[in-house]
Amino acid sequence: MQSLCNMSLSSASLLNNLPLPQMAFPHPTKPNPFAVSAVALKPCCLSAAPRSKKTIVRCQAAGESSSSSQKSQLYQGVYGPWIIEPSDVREVILYRSGLVTAATSFVLASSTAFLPDGSAISDLIKGNLDILYTIGACGLGLSLYLIHIYVTEIKRTLQALWMLGAFGSLATYATFAQPTGKHLVEYVIENPTAIWLVGPLFASLTGLVFKEGLCYGKLEAGILTFIIPSVLLGHLTGLMDDGVKVALLGVWMALFVVFAGRKFSQPVKDDIGDKSVFMFNALPEEEKKALIEKLEKQKLESLN
């Protein structure tokens, strides 16, 4: 593992003031060639050990006044130690709240498939399908905006899919559903080809649950990764019987609730990921090279 402590004052100051990004897939566990021990570092510097944590004085760059240090719970990352800040907690709570919003809206809208026709609750929900769809899409969009993924290209792809699905949904409603006096959901149910327009929105949801299943080994997320596209493709192609679609829809509803609810049982740091990776990636290329060279030199010196 690499330490962020033994570096130039400008690099350390930049790291301490970076707007720390987003979450991450778990980093490979192979040994880091630039790992350095605490003995080889200057005072106030720490070696990085994955998954370990302790309460100590936050690391300082050379020349910093000791009065600026503060007690914090410190986690060891790939490139050095990092702490959870209040802004990180707020982002995680918003991320999880977006998922709960999406799940709640989806379950309410989908419940009409199981409620008796003509019942007061069914009529109430059917009269507000467009509102539920919009709220759910916005909740998902919020979560995709705040999701923490190391690979920026993957995050941007999921966000692009959401945008395509959102615009497709709006276009479908304005061009086809609304002129015929139907809700968007009703129109899509009656016209399976509309899946081409709204489908990217659900593709972004599939990508999100796949990431969660991959990162944390959540069974419900893994199952949702297959159920969501199966229901949509089954409806689009007409190859899936209505009874099967309704059954899978029920499983989708139940697992979505479990998935969103269980997010709040996870430690906040899980959804933050390894901030040291983002801190390192945010450095200019010149400072990245300089830092790696210093860490490599320290490693060699510690072996002598």
Give structural notes:
- This protein is mostly helical and 304 residues long.
- It has a 3-stranded antiparallel sheet, with no helix packed on it.
- The chain is 61% helix and 5% strand.
- The chain contains 12 helices and 3 strands.
| Large-scale geometry | elongated
Order of helical and strand elements = HEEEHHHHHHHHHHH
- Percent helix: 55-70%
List how many beta strands DSSP finds.
3
Q: Largest sheet at a glance?
A: 3 strands, antiparallel
Cα distance spanning the termini:
18 Å
Low-pLDDT residue intervals, each spanning 5 or more residues: 1-71
Radius of gyration: 24 Å
Which sequence of strands runs across the widest sheet?
1-2-3
Q: How would you classify the helix and strand content by structural class?
A: mainly alpha
Range of strand content: under 5%
Mean pLDDT: 80
* Total number of helices: 12
Features:
304 residues; mainly alpha; 3-stranded antiparallel beta sheet; 3 strands; elongated; disordered N terminus
Topology overview:
Elements: H1 9-16, E1 53-57, E2 71-76, E3 81-83, H2 86-110, H3 120-126, H4 129-146, H5 152-177, H6 184-190, H7 195-216, H8 219-237, H9 242-262, H10 268-272, H11 275-281, H12 285-303
Antiparallel strand pairs: 1-2, 2-3
Quick synopsis:
With 304 residues, the protein is mainly alpha-helical. Helix content is 61%, strand content 5%.
